[in-house]
């Protein structure tokens, strides 16, 4: 890797300190639950247009959602998020509404708008499918380039098929839908051949100093899937999120990773794919153990109720 090592690419997603050196962090709690479900930085807490559904304790650095018989937790989050959107408080909200996502690990179902998740530090769910084929040149991987109008990572390379997982879907259902919408691939092809390959967990600190719109604590669970297809299968852009697809050799993907051409978390998905397929090994990568560990961090929030 002539420019960025694999470890550097993984650290771009998993860079939140494992100790308490990140400075003051607010913990967000749901009603009747002593487990935190999100981390928030002070500037986000200060600027959030809190309603009386929430109690902010600046001394103990906590945000507690109150139990109210007349208001569900989902409604309480909707109120404060709607106010933030209407008043254009945070750039990361794009000034618009988004799909509903679940708070992972909540003891009772709670949903929030997708774009607001990182403001509260909730765990986000994603699903990524890597499609590859074997030719006389060896393994070849289908890699899309994101459209230039995308709000995040325009023109970057991406996982073959990827999407955030909304509340009404399982990760696999999301992969099937995104394969159709992004790559014109039929559901029966995906359902027949796809292989679940685990999940990645990481936590990062994005700051305005490294190009983020706001300083946020980002926690992700990414469900990964593989699909080997014949040479006759060719993904074709269907919606306006993908500009084009390339069939790239392993060496070409390695070179693109080194040039930092991939969307940040899609680079991590590709590194995981290389590890699972024996392309990156303990014998050829000095940082192998740290790379694997950072892609499977134990998140400080519950993942089951």
Automatic annotation (TrEMBL):
Highest taxon of the lineage: Eukaryota
GO molecular function: 8-oxo-dGDP phosphatase activity
Chain ranges of the Nudix hydrolase domain: 124-270
Gene3D superfamilies xrefs: Nucleoside Triphosphate Pyrophosphohydrolase
Any Pfam family hit: NUDIX
CDD domains: NUDIX_Tnr3_like (cd03676)
PANTHER family per record: THIAMIN PYROPHOSPHOKINASE, THIAMIN PYROPHOSPHOKINASE 1
Protein name: Nudix hydrolase domain-containing protein
């Amino acid at each position: 890797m002539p420019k960025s090592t694999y470890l550097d690419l993984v650290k771009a997603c998993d860079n939140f300190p494992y100790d308490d050196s990140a400075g003051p962090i607010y913990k967000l709690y749901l009603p009747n639950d002593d487990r935190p479900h999100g981390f928030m930085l002070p500037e986000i807490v200060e600027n959030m247009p809190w309603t009386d559904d929430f109690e902010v304790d600046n001394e103990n650095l906590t945000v507690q959602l109150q139990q109210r018989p007349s208001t569900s937790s989902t409604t309480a989050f909707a109120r404060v998020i709607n106010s933030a959107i209407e008043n254009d408080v945070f750039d990361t909200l794009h000034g618009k509404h988004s799909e509903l996502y679940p708070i992972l690990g909540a003891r009772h179902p709670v949903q929030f708008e997708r774009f607001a998740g990182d403001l509260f530090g909730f765990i986000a769910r994603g699903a990524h499918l890597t499609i590859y084929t074997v030719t006389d040149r060896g393994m070849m991987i289908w890699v899309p380039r994101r459209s230039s109008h995308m709000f995040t990572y325009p023109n970057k390379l991406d996982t073959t098929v990827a999407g955030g997982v909304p509340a009404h879907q399982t990760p696999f259902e999301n992969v099937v839908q995104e394969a159709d919408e992004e790559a014109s691939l039929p559901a029966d092809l995906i359902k027949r051949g796809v292989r679940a390959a685990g999940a990645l967990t990481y936590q990062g600190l994005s700051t305005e100093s490294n190009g983020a719109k706001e300083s946020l604590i980002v926690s992700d669970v990414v469900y990964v899937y593989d699909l080997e297809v014949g040479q006759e299968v060719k993904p074709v852009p269907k919606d306006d999120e993908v500009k084009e697809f390339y069939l790239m050799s392993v060496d070409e993907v390695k070179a693109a990773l080194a040039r930092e051409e991939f969307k940040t978390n899609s680079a991590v998905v590709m590194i995981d794919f290389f590890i699972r397929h024996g392309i990156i090994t303990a014998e050829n990568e000095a940082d192998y153990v740290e790379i694997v560990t950072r892609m499977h961090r134990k998140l400080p929030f519950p993942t089951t109720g």
